[in-house]
Protein backbone atom coordinates (compact mmCIF):
# COMPACT_ATOMS: atom_id res chain seq x y z
CA UNK A 1 0.00 0.00 0.00
CA UNK A 2 1.00 3.64 -0.40
CA UNK A 3 0.31 6.56 1.89
CA UNK A 4 -2.17 9.09 0.50
CA UNK A 5 -1.80 12.87 0.72
CA UNK A 6 -4.33 15.63 0.19
CA UNK A 7 -2.59 18.79 -1.04
CA UNK A 8 -4.69 21.93 -0.56
CA UNK A 9 -3.26 24.83 -2.53
CA UNK A 10 -3.99 27.25 -5.37
CA UNK A 11 -0.33 28.18 -5.81
CA UNK A 12 1.22 26.51 -8.91
CA UNK A 13 4.72 26.93 -7.47
CA UNK A 14 3.79 25.17 -4.23
CA UNK A 15 1.99 22.40 -6.10
CA UNK A 16 4.98 21.80 -8.37
CA UNK A 17 7.51 21.53 -5.51
CA UNK A 18 5.30 19.47 -3.19
CA UNK A 19 4.21 17.05 -5.93
CA UNK A 20 7.84 16.27 -6.69
CA UNK A 21 8.78 15.80 -3.02
CA UNK A 22 5.73 13.65 -2.27
CA UNK A 23 6.47 11.48 -5.30
CA UNK A 24 9.99 10.94 -3.93
CA UNK A 25 8.37 9.53 -0.78
CA UNK A 26 6.11 7.24 -2.85
CA UNK A 27 3.06 9.10 -1.48
CA UNK A 28 -0.01 9.32 -3.72
CA UNK A 29 -1.24 12.91 -4.00
CA UNK A 30 -4.72 14.32 -4.53
CA UNK A 31 -4.99 18.04 -5.23
CA UNK A 32 -7.75 20.32 -3.98
CA UNK A 33 -7.87 24.07 -4.53
CA UNK A 34 -10.41 24.81 -1.78
CA UNK A 35 -10.96 23.74 1.82
CA UNK A 36 -14.59 22.78 1.21
CA UNK A 37 -13.69 20.30 -1.52
CA UNK A 38 -10.79 19.02 0.59
CA UNK A 39 -13.12 18.32 3.52
CA UNK A 40 -15.33 16.21 1.28
CA UNK A 41 -12.26 14.23 0.21
CA UNK A 42 -11.11 13.62 3.78
CA UNK A 43 -14.59 12.41 4.78
CA UNK A 44 -14.16 9.50 2.35
CA UNK A 45 -11.28 8.17 4.45
CA UNK A 46 -7.82 6.86 3.49
CA UNK A 47 -6.07 10.25 3.85
CA UNK A 48 -2.82 9.84 5.78
CA UNK A 49 -1.31 13.28 5.18
CA UNK A 50 -2.76 16.74 4.58
CA UNK A 51 -0.53 19.51 3.23
CA UNK A 52 -2.42 22.80 3.43
CA UNK A 53 -1.30 26.13 2.03
CA UNK A 54 -2.49 28.25 4.96
CA UNK A 55 -5.32 30.71 4.23
CA UNK A 56 -7.89 32.58 6.31
CA UNK A 57 -10.23 29.58 6.41
CA UNK A 58 -7.54 26.95 7.06
CA UNK A 59 -7.86 26.94 10.87
CA UNK A 60 -11.56 26.06 10.61
CA UNK A 61 -10.74 23.43 7.97
CA UNK A 62 -8.17 21.69 10.19
CA UNK A 63 -10.49 21.90 13.21
CA UNK A 64 -13.27 20.17 11.28
CA UNK A 65 -10.84 17.50 10.07
CA UNK A 66 -9.86 16.70 13.66
CA UNK A 67 -13.52 16.27 14.58
CA UNK A 68 -14.30 14.26 11.46
CA UNK A 69 -11.51 11.72 11.57
CA UNK A 70 -11.82 10.66 15.23
CA UNK A 71 -9.01 8.71 16.86
CA UNK A 72 -6.99 7.99 13.73
CA UNK A 73 -5.96 11.45 12.60
CA UNK A 74 -4.04 12.38 9.45
CA UNK A 75 -0.75 14.21 9.85
CA UNK A 76 -1.15 17.90 8.96
CA UNK A 77 1.64 19.94 7.37
CA UNK A 78 0.89 23.68 7.20
CA UNK A 79 2.62 25.93 4.68
CA UNK A 80 2.72 29.24 6.52
CA UNK A 81 3.52 32.64 4.94
CA UNK A 82 4.95 33.99 8.20
CA UNK A 83 5.73 33.25 11.83
CA UNK A 84 2.11 33.28 12.97
CA UNK A 85 0.68 30.50 15.11
CA UNK A 86 -0.66 27.59 13.06
CA UNK A 87 -3.34 25.85 15.17
CA UNK A 88 -3.81 22.11 14.63
CA UNK A 89 -0.69 21.60 12.49
CA UNK A 90 1.74 18.79 13.29
CA UNK A 91 4.51 20.24 11.11
CA UNK A 92 4.92 23.87 9.99
CA UNK A 93 6.80 24.73 6.80
CA UNK A 94 7.55 28.40 6.20
CA UNK A 95 7.05 29.83 2.73
CA UNK A 96 8.55 30.20 0.25
CA UNK A 97 8.86 26.44 -0.04
CA UNK A 98 12.15 25.12 -1.43
CA UNK A 99 13.22 21.59 -2.30
CA UNK A 100 15.46 21.53 0.78
CA UNK A 101 13.00 22.95 3.31
CA UNK A 102 10.13 20.91 1.90
CA UNK A 103 12.09 17.66 2.00
CA UNK A 104 13.13 18.30 5.61
CA UNK A 105 9.55 18.96 6.77
CA UNK A 106 8.08 16.02 4.86
CA UNK A 107 10.72 13.73 6.38
CA UNK A 108 9.40 14.65 9.84
CA UNK A 109 5.81 14.15 8.67
CA UNK A 110 6.63 10.79 7.07
CA UNK A 111 8.18 9.47 10.29
CA UNK A 112 5.06 10.48 12.19
CA UNK A 113 2.78 8.84 9.64
CA UNK A 114 4.77 5.62 9.73
CA UNK A 115 4.67 5.52 13.52
CA UNK A 116 0.90 6.14 13.58
CA UNK A 117 0.30 3.47 10.93
CA UNK A 118 2.26 0.85 12.82
CA UNK A 119 0.50 1.70 16.08
CA UNK A 120 -3.02 1.54 14.65
CA UNK A 121 -2.73 -1.16 11.97
CA UNK A 122 -4.56 -4.40 12.74
CA UNK A 123 -4.11 -7.75 10.97
CA UNK A 124 -6.82 -10.42 10.88
CA UNK A 125 -6.15 -13.78 12.54
CA UNK A 126 -9.37 -15.62 13.63
CA UNK A 127 -7.41 -18.03 15.82
CA UNK A 128 -9.10 -19.82 18.76
CA UNK A 129 -6.86 -20.30 21.80
CA UNK A 130 -7.17 -21.08 25.50
CA UNK A 131 -6.82 -18.07 27.80
CA UNK A 132 -6.60 -17.67 31.56
CA UNK A 133 -8.22 -14.70 33.28
CA UNK A 134 -7.04 -12.83 36.38
CA UNK A 135 -8.92 -15.29 38.63
CA UNK A 136 -7.19 -18.31 37.13
CA UNK A 137 -10.21 -19.44 35.10
CA UNK A 138 -9.63 -20.96 31.68
CA UNK A 139 -11.81 -20.21 28.66
CA UNK A 140 -11.66 -20.29 24.86
CA UNK A 141 -11.24 -16.95 23.09
CA UNK A 142 -10.98 -16.21 19.39
CA UNK A 143 -8.26 -13.71 18.52
CA UNK A 144 -9.78 -11.77 15.62
CA UNK A 145 -6.92 -9.35 14.96
CA UNK A 146 -3.59 -8.21 16.34
CA UNK A 147 -1.47 -5.09 16.13
CA UNK A 148 1.48 -3.41 17.78
CA UNK A 149 -0.46 -2.49 20.92
CA UNK A 150 -3.06 -5.17 21.44
CA UNK A 151 -5.54 -7.75 20.17
CA UNK A 152 -9.23 -7.95 19.38
CA UNK A 153 -11.06 -11.00 20.70
CA UNK A 154 -14.49 -12.61 20.83
CA UNK A 155 -15.55 -14.88 23.68
CA UNK A 156 -18.58 -16.15 25.57
CA UNK A 157 -16.85 -15.27 28.85
CA UNK A 158 -18.32 -12.11 30.47
CA UNK A 159 -15.28 -9.83 30.61
CA UNK A 160 -15.45 -6.24 31.84
CA UNK A 161 -13.06 -3.36 31.15
CA UNK A 162 -9.99 -3.66 33.35
CA UNK A 163 -9.97 -7.47 33.51
CA UNK A 164 -6.72 -9.16 32.52
CA UNK A 165 -5.98 -12.40 30.70
CA UNK A 166 -3.01 -14.36 29.44
CA UNK A 167 -2.72 -16.61 26.42
CA UNK A 168 -0.32 -18.26 24.01
CA UNK A 169 -0.77 -17.46 20.35
CA UNK A 170 0.86 -19.02 17.30
CA UNK A 171 1.15 -16.42 14.55
CA UNK A 172 0.80 -17.80 10.99
CA UNK A 173 4.19 -18.70 9.54
CA UNK A 174 6.06 -18.61 12.87
CA UNK A 175 7.60 -21.61 14.62
CA UNK A 176 6.64 -20.97 18.24
CA UNK A 177 3.71 -19.49 20.09
CA UNK A 178 4.14 -16.15 21.83
CA UNK A 179 3.01 -15.52 25.40
CA UNK A 180 0.84 -12.46 25.96
CA UNK A 181 -0.66 -10.77 29.01
CA UNK A 182 -3.34 -8.24 28.14
CA UNK A 183 -5.94 -5.95 29.73
CA UNK A 184 -9.50 -5.53 28.48
CA UNK A 185 -10.02 -1.95 27.29
CA UNK A 186 -13.60 -2.21 25.99
CA UNK A 187 -16.35 -4.79 25.49
CA UNK A 188 -19.43 -5.17 23.30
CA UNK A 189 -22.73 -6.99 23.98
CA UNK A 190 -22.09 -9.59 21.28
CA UNK A 191 -18.89 -10.91 22.94
CA UNK A 192 -16.26 -8.77 21.25
CA UNK A 193 -13.55 -7.07 23.29
CA UNK A 194 -10.47 -4.97 22.67
CA UNK A 195 -7.31 -5.64 24.67
CA UNK A 196 -4.07 -3.75 25.23
CA UNK A 197 -0.80 -5.58 25.84
CA UNK A 198 0.51 -5.54 29.41
CA UNK A 199 3.52 -7.84 29.09
CA UNK A 200 5.19 -9.90 26.38
CA UNK A 201 8.56 -11.58 27.05
CA UNK A 202 11.39 -9.95 25.03
CA UNK A 203 11.93 -12.97 22.75
CA UNK A 204 8.21 -13.22 22.02
CA UNK A 205 7.99 -9.46 21.46
CA UNK A 206 10.69 -9.76 18.80
CA UNK A 207 8.70 -12.54 17.10
CA UNK A 208 5.57 -10.37 17.14
CA UNK A 209 7.32 -7.29 15.78
CA UNK A 210 9.07 -9.25 13.03
CA UNK A 211 5.72 -10.77 12.05
CA UNK A 212 3.98 -7.39 12.02
CA UNK A 213 6.85 -5.90 9.98
CA UNK A 214 6.43 -8.65 7.38
CA UNK A 215 2.73 -7.75 7.08
CA UNK A 216 3.32 -4.00 6.98
CA UNK A 217 3.87 -3.51 3.25
CA UNK A 218 4.18 0.26 2.93
CA UNK A 219 5.52 1.39 -0.44
CA UNK A 220 9.09 2.51 0.16
CA UNK A 221 10.33 6.02 -0.70
CA UNK A 222 12.53 6.32 -3.78
CA UNK A 223 14.91 8.60 -1.86
CA UNK A 224 16.93 7.79 1.23
CA UNK A 225 15.48 9.14 4.47
Question: Could you provide a short overview of the structure?
Answer:
The chain has helices at residues 12-24, 35-43, 58-69, 99-120, 202-215; strands at residues 4-8, 28-32, 49-53, 75-80, 91-94, 122-133, 138-147, 150-154, 164-169, 178-187, 192-199. With 225 residues, it is an alpha/beta fold.
Record the SSE blueprint.
Blueprint: E1 4-8, H1 12-24, E2 28-32, H2 35-43, E3 49-53, H3 58-69, E4 75-80, E5 91-94, H4 99-120, E6 122-133, E7 138-147, E8 150-154, E9 164-169, E10 178-187, E11 192-199, H5 202-215
Parallel strand pairs: 1-2, 1-3, 3-4, 4-5
Antiparallel strand pairs: 6-7, 6-9, 7-8, 8-11, 9-10, 10-11
Helix pairs in contact: 1-4, 2-3
> Under the CATH scheme, which class of the largest domain?
Alpha Beta
Structure annotation, total helices: 5
Q: Write the CATH homologous superfamily of the largest domain.
A: Response regulator
What is the domain tally?
A: 2
Features:
alpha/beta; six-stranded antiparallel beta barrel; Rossmann fold; Thrombin, subunit H; five-stranded parallel sheet
Explain the overall architecture.
By secondary structure, the protein is of the alpha/beta class. Strand 6 and strand 7 (138-147) form a beta hairpin. The protein has helices spanning 12-24, 35-43, 58-69, 99-120, 202-215; strands at 4-8, 28-32, 49-53, 75-80, 91-94, 122-133, 138-147, 150-154, 164-169, 178-187, 192-199. The chain has 5 helices and 11 strands, in the order E-H-E-H-E-H-E-E-H-E-E-E-E-E-E-H. The longest helix is centred in the middle third of the chain and has 22 residues, at 99-120. The protein has 2 domains: 4-120, Response regulator (Rossmann fold); 122-215, predicted glycosyltransferase like domains (Thrombin, subunit H). The strands form 2 sheets. Strands 6-7-8-11-10-9 form a 6-stranded antiparallel β-barrel. A 5-stranded parallel beta sheet has the order 2-1-3-4-5, sandwiched between helices. It is elongated, with a radius of gyration of 21 Å. Helix content is 31%, strand content 34%.
Amino acid sequence: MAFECLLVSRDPGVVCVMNKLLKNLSICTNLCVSSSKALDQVSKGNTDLIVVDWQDDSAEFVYRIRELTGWQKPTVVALSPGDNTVPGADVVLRKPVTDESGAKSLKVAYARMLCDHRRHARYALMSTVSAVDHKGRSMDVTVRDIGDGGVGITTKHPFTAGDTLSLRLLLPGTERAIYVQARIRWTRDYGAAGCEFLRIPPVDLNILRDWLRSKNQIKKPVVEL
